Amino acid sequence: MAAVRRILIDCDPGLDDAAAILMALGARAVLDLVALTTVAGNVGLAAVTRNASGLLALAGRTDVPLHAGCPRALVGGTLRAQHVHGEGGIGGVDLPVGVSARSEHAVDAIRRIARESGPKGLTLVPIGPLTNIACALVMAPDIADCLSEIVVMGGAARVGGNVTPVAEFNFAADPHAARIVLESGVPVVVMPLDVTRQAVVTEARIDALRTLATPVGETLAAMLAAYRGRTGRAVLHDPCTIAYLLAPDLFRGEGVAATVDTASDVSMGRLVADWNGQTGRDPTVTIMSDLDADGFYDLLVAQIRALS
C-alpha cells in the first residue's frame, strides 16, 4: 500500500481550482489534506475563501482547516480573471455554506504545518498566485527542509501565455513570488500551460461526471459546463497537480534550472527555463510537457466518485 502523503493546497477558487480540491479530497486514502489556504487571484480574497469553504462543505470535509492569506501580490497591482470564472469565481454555481476560515493567517499556517511535518514531510500544492508560499519561505527559510516538493500550476515554457504573449496567469499575477519559489532550492514540479492545455474539457467528460448522479459529481459537472460556456475551450489547469501526485506516469517532463522574469515590462512573469544548462545552476525544477489526457480524466472521475 502506498504511503499517505501530507499535502497543503494553496488556492484561489476558481473553477479549475474547484476540480483540483475535490479531486484531492476524493483521494483521501493516499493524500492527507492537512490544510487549505487561500490567496487572492482569480477573484478577490473574500470570494476565493468563501468558495474554498463551500467546496469543503460540499465534500463533507469541514474538518480540513481553512486559512485565508494574502489579498494582493508582493509588488504591483492586482490581476483578476472574473471574465473566465465569473464575478464570484465559480461560474454562478451554488455551493453550500461552509465554516469560516480560522484566525491564523495562511502564511503562518504554512510555516507551522511545515515545521510540524518534519524533514521532507510536507508537499505544497500551490494552484494560484504564489504569494503565500513565497512569503512563508522568506519569513522562515528553515521550512525548506520540511518540504519534499512543491507542485505548482503556473507558467508557459515552450508555448504562449494566456494573459500576455509569454506569461501565464498565476505567474503573471505575482511574478516576484513565483521567482522566489522557483529559486528556493526546494524541488519544484511545474505544470505549465504546455501540459495543462492538453486537459481539454469536453461534453463527454462533463457527462461522465454528471452520470455519477452524486451531489459532488453534478456540482462539478455544472461548474465545468459553465467554464466551457464562458471560454469556448476550457481546460483543467489546476487538477494536473493532483493527478501528478496520484499518477505521475500520466506526465512527462524534464528537470532544469528555472526562474521567472521580474525585470522586463515586455516579458514580466515569463517562465525562463535553462534548457541547455547555461547558468550552471542545479536543475531543481521539473517542467512537465506531456499528459495522457484520457488517463487524467479517468482519474478525476474516479476521485469524484469516491466522494459519493
From TrEMBL:
GO terms for cellular component: cytosol. Residues 7-298 form the Inosine/uridine-preferring nucleoside hydrolase domain. It comes from the Bacteria. One of its GO terms (molecular function) is purine nucleosidase activity. Keywords: Glycosidase, Hydrolase. GO terms for biological process: purine nucleoside catabolic process. PANTHER family: INOSINE-URIDINE PREFERRING NUCLEOSIDE HYDROLASE, URIDINE NUCLEOSIDASE. This is Nucleoside hydrolase. It comes from Marivibrio halodurans.
